[in-house]
Amino acid sequence: MWGMIATWRMAVEGITEASKGLEKGMDAGEAVVTAVKMVEDYPFYKSVGYGGLPNENCEVELDAAYMDGDTLAIGAVAGIRDYANPVSIARLLSEEKVNNFLVGTGAEEYAHKNGFERKNMLTDRAKQHYAKRKKETLDKGLSPYAGHDTVGMISLDEHGKMCAATSTSGLFMKRRGRIGDSALSGSGFFVDSEVGGATATGLGEDLMKGCISYEIVRLMKEGKHPQEACDIAVNQLDEELIRRRGKAGDLSLVAMNNKGEWGVATNIENFTFSVATKELEATVYISNRVDGTTKHEVASKEWLDAYAARIKAPIEID
Length: 318
Prior knowledge:
Layout: E1 3-7, H1 12-23, H2 28-41, E2 62-68, E3 74-80, H3 86-93, E4 101-103, H4 104-113, H5 124-140, E5 151-156, E6 162-168, E7 189-192, E8 196-202, H6 204-207, H7 212-221, H8 226-245, E9 251-257, E10 262-266, E11 271-277, E12 283-290, E13 293-298, H9 301-312
Parallel strand pairs: 3-4
Antiparallel strand pairs: 1-5, 1-11, 2-3, 2-6, 5-6, 7-8, 8-9, 9-10, 11-12, 12-13
Helix pairs in contact: 1-2, 2-3, 7-8
């Protein structure tokens, strides 16, 4: 048995490619990094890697993490600038005995010393997105922070090893140095090969309030199916945030256990995710919450075609 699950439609090409390797016995860590790097390298996926959404100063600051479910080793970087494929830097950090989580200039110095590719991650298209949002914020009073889609993945290989990885540019027009949940173990991701894994996307400030990825793995360890675990954790955090704060931000989680069974839960409309297993080719689903339970349907060809056209459409600034 092998499998992969990931947040958002943008992951499907990476999962498709990594699935070929998993079918041939590829290691779960290699598979998840291969898949995430494909998302990081594609400039039209504007919330991850090259072409990622800039902060308030029009700088691209990236966060990424990697976790090995066999050893529980973790590596993470946050607020790193001008380096391609931060997920690969995070993976190398997971092999260190200490200093596993580096931020800002420390992360950049580590990347330089270890020969990672230095690259300007701010594209002309990202600058256009920035100019458009800045104008909308000033002229129309729209929130500058809309747009925060993390790619998070869980992989399972034929040997039962599981790994997790995340990568994001964080909130659009965030304050310089802001870090969300994506690089934080237990919040943005968690995986244990003896149980399963989960990873999150949405508003990091709220996802961190529930350590929600760990909570889902804990529920699976108690015997809950991944779908039940996801629904319980998302519904409870959503309700708790509303009770205590009056509002809950976007919360979307994907999970897979060590049997290859998977689950997804969300508190937003039309959340998309990508999944592949030995029995299921890489497929994009759309999820919605109905009476406390998340329902999934396969994305139609029309929806997929519209998505492809939308992400490449010219950016018009009024």
